[in-house]
Amino acid sequence: MSEQQNIEYKQSWRDEYLKWICGFTNAQGGKIFIGIDDKENITGIEGYKKLMDDIPNKAVNHLGLVVDVNLHKKDGKHYIEIVVPVSTVPISYHGIYHYRSGSTKQELKGAALHNWLLKKSGKNWEDIPVPGATTEDLDLETIRVFLQKAISKDRIPANAVSENPETILQRLNLLSKDGELTNAAILLFGKRPYAISPTTSFKIGRFGKELSDLRFQDIIESNLLTMADKVMEKLNDRYLIRPISYKGLERMEPLEYPETALREATLNAIIHKDYSSTWVFLRVYDDRLEIWNPGELPEELTIEKLKGTHSSYPRNPNIAGAFFKAGYIESWGRGVNRIIEDSLQAGLPEPVIEEDMKGLRVTFLKDIYTEEYLRKLGLNERQLKSVFHIKEFEKITNKKYQALFKVSRETASRDLAMMVELGVIYSSGSRGAGSYFKLRK
């Protein structure tokens, strides 16, 4: 069995492998085999009798942890199996907390360590009480709108409209055991949520082709329940265009990216964000739109599982619960599917969803004609650049192709004909000086 989340192989014992024991017990537990190489060949181990005493004693002395140490023999070679249990309390090795993730060992630091320690204690960042916070810090209009939406969705009783703010927050699990307002309460309904978490704000930027080409930017500062609407308003007003088309006599003006998919991605970023970390960033480029939020996927999920049928594992259950009751999300575990479905129905490529920099990024593409896709088709450098020229100037002529790449008419015709055959471009159909080529939608 190859190295994975719960298995590690070492050819010999070193005391520094106590770090691996620490990492296993802080994660899902596991087994460490001493005397087996990475290819699962039994190499054997010398001094195994002494190690049978040393390893469990060192685990107790350095980690305060009891591990099972078993001796095995195969083909005349001895090897040791260390069975590491899951610890219910955080375990450190010389003051450093290690954690097993996949087939690697990580040192937990900063926000990752803070959140993990909270999780080990059975708490989330959203559940921490805010010292000195009172109902005076809440925005009553946000509460009123929330109640209106939640009652209309039949997700809270109609008589809740007459309840005081404390009772409503209690219903939503937004008060501590001592009746204090939690971080989630202030983030959802607060007048100034950025006072307890400066990175609560949502950053939007308009770029050219590259990250270094920032044209303008905005920061959305509001409580979470009004944030998605404000983000969409800003995108509509300043960042995105509405190409005009006609369906029969009906004038069509949808956004260049489907609004339903954008809203869903925005809501996901807000709900699943790690609020002890940095901001959410929405970047609009010439050819794509990216939404990135801090916070790694839970251990139970992968990108592929996100795209299929899966249960929901919200990072902030109480924040997610409030959004559900207000009807902003219809069901848990379907957000990514809706983003993909709505994008495909709008005639756009499937959005790219990836983990990056301890966060999750969703990238909406205007068309499939990315450099990676075009290279897979076998386009040469001239053809590749001609596609980007058409993207910028809408069309290209044979004469323009010759001038751009300093080639003969025959070469230009051959290159363009190949692109037509591949279905990348199409001809206007006319001949002579008036003919041109455009990208096939």
Automatic annotation (TrEMBL):
GO molecular function, one term: helicase activity
InterPro entries per UniProt: RecG_C_sf, Schlafen_AlbA_2_dom, Schlafen_AlbA_2_dom_sf, WH-like_DNA-bd_sf, WH_DNA-bd_sf
Matches recorded under Gene3D superfamilies: 3.30.565.60, Schlafen, AAA domain, Winged helix-like DNA-binding domain superfamily/Winged helix DNA-binding domain
Domain of life of the source: Bacteria
Residue ranges annotated for the Schlafen AlbA-2 domain, each copy included: 3-108
Keywords: ATP-binding, Helicase, Hydrolase, Nucleotide-binding
Pfam families in the record: HATPase_c_4, SLFN_AlbA_2
Repeat found in the keyword field: no
Protein name: ATP-dependent DNA helicase RecG
